Amino acid sequence: LIEMKNIVKDYRMGGATVHALRRVDVSIDDGEFVSIVGPSGSGKSTLMNLIGCLDRPSSGEYHLDGRKVDELPDDDLARIRNKRLGFVFQTFNLLPRTSCLRNVELPLLYSNVPRKTREAKAREMLERVGLKDRVDHNPSELSGGERQRVAIARALVNEPTIVLADEPTGNLDSKTGSEIMSIFESLNAEGKTIVLVTHEKYIADYSKRMIYLRDGMVVTPEEGTLR
Amino acid sequence: LIEMKNIVKDYRMGGATVHALRRVDVSIDDGEFVSIVGPSGSGKSTLMNLIGCLDRPSSGEYHLDGRKVDELPDDDLARIRNKRLGFVFQTFNLLPRTSCLRNVELPLLYSNVPRKTREAKAREMLERVGLKDRVDHNPSELSGGERQRVAIARALVNEPTIVLADEPTGNLDSKTGSEIMSIFESLNAEGKTIVLVTHEKYIADYSKRMIYLRDGMVVTPEEGTLR
Ligand SMILES: Nc1ncnc2c1ncn2[C@@H]1O[C@H](COP(=O)(O)OP(=O)(O)OP(=O)(O)O)[C@@H](O)[C@H]1O
Ligand SMILES: Nc1ncnc2c1ncn2[C@@H]1O[C@H](COP(=O)(O)OP(=O)(O)OP(=O)(O)O)[C@@H](O)[C@H]1O
Ligand SMILES: [Mg+2]
Ligand SMILES: [Mg+2]
Fold first, then answer.
1. Pairwise CA distance, residues B218 & B40, whole Å
2. Of A16, A227, B38, B110, which has the fewest beta carbons less than 10 angstroms from its beta carbon?
3. Given strand B85-88, what is the order of strands in its sheet?
4. For B36, which residue in chain A has the nearest alpha carbon?
5. What pLDDT digit, counting tens, does each position of A110-127 carry?
6. What is the mean pLDDT of chain B?
7. Ligand 1 centroid to A140 CA: how many Å?
């Protein structure tokens, strides 16, 4: 489903270059539940952005469901993202001046879902992540973990077949974190593909396989670290 | 040092009221190392904002180092914050269009520290949190955990006597997280007071006492939960 070969991602900054990913191969099958782990700055979010078609590699090949995506025009990438991918960002990226409800409805707007259905689906998703009593709050009127859960609800509302979640429980106590992981488990049981970035072992333990990153490279489990 | 009695914090939203803190008593001595733990939405950040004089309670009393702060004018609060408190925000709150270095220098600017000294101290703090090679990056050019570490560096650069850190390791792998905790431990060994909010047990274990919150109230350890 996800096939990456020789992926390189460089960030150029004036004279210096940051080698965020240095020749990485990633292969994820349909329906897998995978964790990406590694130290801060090792390239996890960069890799997630590439998998999620939010950015392009500096070089290398990326086939998503058989299609070569690294050279597709932006419109095609946007369409793929909207139809197939659900992305939970490490820094949430919510619209600050609009309610949770509207924030969660956003992907459905792009999919041309009728207003009544959009609202019903958004409410259902917010209830599922435990935020039934917060639907009218703006993100600035929410706790950190509540914002994180709005970002999760938004990623799932369009029923994506591939869920990419970057540190989805970084701001959640273990009970709330486990509730979120049950949602991911049931999606995986329905056949959805789940790719998580996490630094918490109890979260990584929900997945069936781990990809270890260090300094922009994939390393073996012995070289990788997770408490 | 920190003495709170009968603290209530309500957020009014149109017709509804959110009771974020409902009659909370908190007592923290000089030089203590305390963790505040509890579920998402239980009032931890709200409590931290009150302790840090960033907000006022709806009712109740707060004495900081013997002074009744809940009724002080804003200027006095700003002065106390700058001289004594270092605050690591759950959502970092960095200036997006300015370098890490300038972000970390900011508290020193308010303290009228001369330019050369400001830059030297900011560089030293960034090196201490492992970001020597990232000083010229803007926050948008950093990983999530790197941004978190810039927020930590900024909180510590003015050598505060009270450090308030809200989920300081939420985006950090356990090795980087432990490095940050060693910094807090050595500050505590020098006599600084440390108050942490965390949901991770290995982080809470660095502190000597835990305050458990649930639904805006302090509860006993048996009622509180931490994995
Ligand atoms: N400005 C606001 N207006 C209305 N309600 C608010 C506001 N800020 C916070 N709240 C609500 O107050 C409650 C407590 O928020 P707080 O941020 O203190 O929780 P928390 O314990 O830090 O949670 P988390 O672990 O998720 O960060 C939450 O339920 C939140 O929705
Ligand atoms: N826009 C950018 N310009 C320059 N360097 C960048 C940019 N974005 C990220 N980087 C650098 O690339 C490296 C990898 O970043 P990435 O966000 O992928 O790390 P990460 O593994 O997700 O880290 P964390 O666990 O801290 O979130 C980091 O060292 C970071 O400083
Ligand atoms: Mg990241
Ligand atoms: Mg909080």
1. 14
2. A16
3. B85-88, B162-166, B193-197, B33-37, B209-214, B217-219
4. A173
5. 888 999 999 999 999 999
6. 93
7. 9
